[in-house]
Amino acid sequence: MHKILGLLSFILFLSCSSPGENVTMNSVDNKWNKKSEQKFNLEISDPQNPKNIIFVVRNNNNYPYSNIRFIVNFTNLQNKKKETDTLNYVLAKPNGEWLGTGFGDTKEILFQYKLNYKFPEKGKYEISLVQAMRNDFLPGIEDIGVKIETAKP
């Protein structure tokens, strides 16, 4: 049942995207292993237009925390230059109510990573995410994604 709801919300999410958006999702099957790096390959053809890089997280009621921490590696594959960030995002209100949108047990929330980011050159880039929580296997995370959209002036 969760997979059907997830698939329907993913289709709805894609149908609501505008032409300047690119969304890539990886399923982590409700148990994101700390050693499992989620990789996203980007092809940038118009570096003159600034982009917003946004992370997409889908979690369910099995997720035991109100926040999530990522270690992000952002790599320019042309020159192998790599930036590493450690990020903390809030998933729930202080009363335990999940943030984000969705119906049923699954919620989807968007987190800003880089806004109005101007890619240095045309070409291929890679973003990889590793969960940096206490658990070796993080329950309740269904999907992780990256959304690239052209920034609005």
Automatic annotation (TrEMBL):
What keywords would UniProt list here? Signal
Checking InterPro entries in the record gives:
Motility-assoc_lipoprot_GldH
Q: Which organism is it from?
A: Chryseobacterium piperi
Q: Which Pfam family is one of this chain's hits?
A: GldH_lipo
Q: Metal-binding: present as a keyword of the record?
A: no
Q: State what protein this is by name.
A: Gliding motility protein GldH
Give the superkingdom in one word: Bacteria
Statement: the UniProt record of this protein carries the keyword Acetylation = no
Q: Which residues form the signal peptide?
A: 1-20
